[in-house]
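Two entries, shown back to back:
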Amino acid sequence: MLRHRHCSRLLIASVTGRLSLGMVPVALILAAQADGHSLARASVLAALYGIAPALGLPLLGRLADLRGLPLPCHLGAALVATALGTLALVGTSHLALTAVCVALAGAGCPPLEGGLRSLYPTLLPDAAHVRTAYTLDSSTQEIVYVTGPALAIAMATWLGPAGALALAAAVTVAGSVAFATARPARTWRAAPRRRDRLGVLRPPAMRPLLISLVFLGATVGALDVAGIAVAERQDASWLAGALPATFSAAGLVGGVLFARLQPATAPRPRHLMLLGTAFAAGWLPLLAPLPALAILALAILPGALFVPLLTVASLTVTSLAPPGTSTETVGWMSSAIRLGLAGGTALAGPLGGHFAVPLMAAAVCALLLSARPAPTATAG
């Protein structure tokens, strides 16, 4: 897939522009603590940043479908750079200004993922290549959330939290400009769309599918808290970082294997149901009291299934999208997952970080995937 013209540049630019999604929450916490804020207040700022793209991505995605990709990519990058640059220069002491900047930095995230997925059908020769590209894109999201925090911590150690925020702004601008100036991005136009207030949400099957993605995201948000909780219970501080890293690494491997082994035909509803059920079942062994290394080993199974499930869900969402809404549709999908991440994190804390929380979220996700109505729309 990467041998086809423009694909490598667009994928690398997209991942680079999205690195800030993994960098900013860590950099914000470090910056807020350095300015004397409590961990609780710093975490609220990070949560605000996590939720804000859920509002901005569908809007910027709709702008891309209406006006082309360069405008929302450049506009989003400018908002992110201005907001993060302000925080890097003036700090986080003024809480109201900080909250506004954090919200703008999150809401302004350029629609790089949706734009890339809109471009794949125009760059690749057939549907099989497009499905492989979607799998690869879902896998590379794991890189964002593994590499991003590591970059933020390294830069904060070297130049302080302000340096980490500045780097996050720089990679967003660099990735967005490299993406938006590529010829396919400059020339792409969405298909004509029908005027409809519901738009992407019009197909009956779309709404339960997007809700299921909220619960899919909640499993990952709850996992981060579970890692911290089990690390404290077992007096193994290394487990707090190793558990989500193992889950993400397993996702990368699972995505690669799925790309090689996936069916030659488009995924069917039963594929989504089977993957959802297997993903939920993968959390069951983690309910047992286990030593740290066993927990790491058992986290590999749900981790390896996460990317295939996300990939098939993405393909299904795309197949349901009304004509002319491809970029906005991916924005809604990303919003659903990010809302789930924030909700899973918020819910897991009061419940003691038990693995029952991601299990319950995965089970609800599987139930929604099993109960969703038959598709009624075709790809846009």
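entry 2 starts here
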Amino acid sequence: MAAEARTENRQLTNRAGTITAGDREFTVVLRNVSEDGACVRPVGTGSIPDRFRLVAPMEKIDADCVVIWRRGRDCGVKFE
């Protein structure tokens, strides 16, 4: 089994957020959140770009993000 790469504890959640990349905007579900990043899943058929702005008011997130891993429809992102 691979060693855990996270340096911060993650908080499980199931709240909505909005991704903006260029002129594209769509909704995602935040699966978990830490101080450094999150796991997000797109709602619908959209694909998550490699870099984007994530806004999730319920989680107090408004950050530029970069995708660091992808598994199926889920993506792990790092806050920049």
